[in-house]
Design a protein that fits this description.
Elements: E1 8-12, H1 22-26, E2 32-37, E3 40-45, H2 56-60, E4 66-70
Antiparallel strand pairs: 1-4, 2-3
The structure holds iron/sulfur cluster (SF4) (2 copies).
């Protein structure tokens, strides 16, 4: 059975994110990453194609820093 890609994708609101890494560990599709970017720790959707739009990361984020938005790719 083929997977129908969701029209939604996770988006991390940087101002609310404390980079705890919960969502990175939780995403079973390895779509998220925490890394140093220009000397600053950031958590972001590293691989948009892997995000299935399931919204589970949004539910486990302790700071409500993840929202589901319309897919751009
Ligand atoms: S769970 Fe929330 S606060 Fe923690 S890294 Fe992910 S987006 Fe940031
Ligand atoms: S919406 Fe689902 S697939 Fe996409 S990053 Fe969050 S947990 Fe992973």
């Amino acid at each position: 059975m083929f997977w129908n890609k969701s029209r939604l994708i996770a988006n991390i609101v940087e101002d609310r994110c404390c980079n705890c890494g919960n969502c990175v560990r939780f995403c079973r599709h390895s779509a998220l990453m925490t890394a140093e970017v220009r000397g600053k720790t950031c958590t972001f959707v590293d691989n948009p194609k892997r995000c299935r739009g399931c919204g589970k990361c949004m539910l486990i984020c302790p700071h409500r820093a993840i929202e589901m938005v319309e897919r751009y790719c």
